[in-house]
Amino acid sequence: MMGARGAVWGGCLAGVLLAAPATAQAGREARVELAAGLGWRGAVHFPSVTATEVGPNDKVVPVFQTASSLDASPGLVVNVGARLSRRLAIESTLSMNRTQLSVAISNDVEGVPNLTASEPVTQYLVEGGIRLAMPRRHRAAFEPFLAAGGGYLRQLNEGQTLINTGSSIYAGGGAHYWLRRGGRGWIESSGIRIDARVSVLNGGVAIDGGRHAAPVVGVGLFFRF
Amino acid sequence: MPQTRCLRLLVVGWCAVLSIVAPLPAHAYLKFGIEVGGVTKVLRWNGAVPVPYYVSHEALPNVSAADFQAAISRAFNAWEVVPTATVSYRFAGFTSNRPGDDDGLSTLGFLNEPALDQVLATTSYLIDELTGELLESDVFFNSAYAWSAGVSPVANRWDVESIAVHEIGHFNGLGHSAIGETTVSPSGRRVTSVGSVMFPIAIGVGDITARTLDADDIAGLSDLYPTSQFTATTGSISGRVLKNGRGVFGAHVVAFDVATGAQVANFSLSTAGAFSITGLRPGPHLLRVEPLDDADLESFFGGNEPVDVQFAPRFLSKIIIVPRGGDSGTVTVAVTPR
User: Fold this and answer.
1) Which of residues 148-167 of A touch B (CB under 8 A)?
2) For chain B, which has fewer Cβ within 10 Å, the N-terminal or C-terminal residue?
3) To the nearest 5 percent, what fractions of chain A are helix, strand and coil?
């Protein structure tokens, strides 16, 4: 866990260090990108677990069944990136989601009505990765890109009685759409950033302790300096 | 130095139970205690570790003393290997004394008690009335029934090892668990399933299910004889069961581990409806609350407690996250009359 955390903070630090010289290079192509927006993370379904007892002749008798999931949820996303070359950039991402751990209970042996029990969970992801811009025509409005990386997962239940940590990896792509270019101020350009990823979370509140993939999409504004 | 007063105080058995010691409130699992000067003392072994036990010479036509001792040894081992409990045992030898004699020897053996209808075995205690310390614990197996003591079960015979595992749970100071289901027919109550070897009714002849401890049994033993690791690495859920705003006494509260499927339970043991379930793995749990209707109430309580069974079973709609080494905080479960 410490190794994952170290890698992420290392990624953030690299972003800051690389940002400094960029601000001193006025008049040249922007090297730092800041983006913020809304995200949506898809649901994660965990293996179902059945409460059982043992009957005569070692027969397993179900008492009730459960199906657990981490619900789909909206969230906030902030990206800080630094260009290493014309097409390659590193970036750090902080995302926060308010989601719910849900357990659907069914088929109770004594006829208790089906029910879904839940517990709010606040999820933080600190990730670092690379972003590769795809070839495009000069000054085209759209710039598609590929992205991949990983990071540190921290999940807190409502009462914060237990802190769950884990790791993440992601891969996907997206696009920048410029609304404004060549400004005279310290913002060189700005526009809309769209992201679509597959995110794999490892650990955390996952009841089986395993890896679980979920789709993640995001849209926000970006600013380049 | 307090004077030790010995008293044979409690008889618990499988299938029929007499209990004259109050179950302890606000502790995980059902364990027993006595009140000394307004302070409740838990019944447990505090003295020599490992606890010495003796096996009666008496044999049956189909069960030699050696086979009986071997089955008893395996049953003790089932409890001794629990890694989160400190209690251990030592076979001290065969004896001609009988189980139930006040002789300072914890003796397990056969007695012919045909008058004890539907009682397969019984555990009795000799305790220090001042401290609650167990001084002697005897287990008799009713030879009015047919028994087998081999490693393999025998059809139409009760398995000594399985019944011994249950009785040794009492030997340790544990009461009955209510994790199990029964149906009632004109011929009597029939067990359909069990989730703890400490369920008060045995499944049937030839069955060896009770040779293996369940999560509830392990939590109970570990609660009585905890290792430091157990206390530090498990957590608890505590709260109240209410009906029409008033506490429910005797509600069966089961904590279900969403990740492992383990079930650990206790009862609401005060008129305020307070319960506490300890020994839980940290993480998300469901709570299921049900009336105590799968065995005779006398299997769990002394008969004078105001046990309420007039409510519908239900699940709590909130997932309880058990912390490591701590408690969930007060959880309130409101049940409705039926």
Assistant:
1) 157, 159, 161-162
2) N
3) 10, 65, 25
- For residues A143, A148, A154 and A158, what is the CA-based torsion angle, rounded to 10 degrees? 50
Selected residue of B192, B233, B256, B319 to mutate for chain A interface (largest A Cβ count, 10 A): B319
Residue of A nearest to B261 (CA): A51
Question: What is the rounded CA–CA span in Å between residue B77 and residue B86?
Answer: 13
Cut 0.95: pTM above it = no
Helices B160-172 and B215-224: crossing angle, nearest 10°? 30
Candidates A45, A63, A212, partner chain B, best to mutate (most B CBs within 10 A): A63
Are the Cβ atoms of A117 and B322 closer than 8 angstroms?
no
pLDDT at A31: 87
Could you give the CA distance from residue A124 to residue A98 in angstroms, rounded to a whole number? 9
Cβ within 8 Å, pair B321-A159 = yes
Please report, as a single letter, which amino acid is at residue A13: L
Contact A49 B259 (CB under 8 A): yes
Question: CA–CA separation, B121 vs B171, rounded Å?
Answer: 12
Give me the amino acid identity at A33: E
**pLDDT (tens digit per residue) in A197-209:** 999 999 888 888 8
SS3 state at B75: helix
Q: What is the pLDDT of residues B202-222, one digit of tens each?
A: 888 999 989 999 999 999 999
